[in-house]
Design goal:
107 residues; mainly alpha; 6 helices; globular
Length: 107
């Protein structure tokens, strides 16, 4: 392998590694959405860690719709009010996973 070919390979590998680091993980997207919905950053981080592996991508997308709630309300949303909104999604699994995460993180 020539020095030029080796250098090109190294640059391509570095670029692909940087690109993979630039993508946002589902957990960080969920955490950001929970904060945007009005939960405290500490509660959102704790809940996201517990929820991300227990919900499908489709269910996580449904939860994203709750992020628009805060735009009409200023300040932090209480956990019970947030769970009320989650229940309105009418998905028992989302509600179960979210409420368990909220209980565990509140303790």
């Amino acid at each position: 392998m020539t020095a030029i070919a080796f250098r090109a390979l190294a640059c391509a590998l570095t670029a692909s590694l940087l690109a993979s680091c630039a993508t946002v993980s589902p957990e960080s997207r969920l955490r950001a959405g929970l904060v945007e919905a009005g939960l405290s950053p500490r509660m959102a981080g704790c809940m996201a860690e517990r929820m991300v592996d227990r919900l499908s991508l489709a269910q996580l997308r449904r939860l994203q719709s709750l992020a628009s709630l805060r735009k009409s309300h200023m300040g932090e949303m209480s956990v019970d009010r947030f769970l009320y909104k989650v229940r309105a999604l009418e998905d028992p699994e989302i509600f179960l996973v979210t409420s368990k995460a909220a209980i565990n993180c509140a303790l």
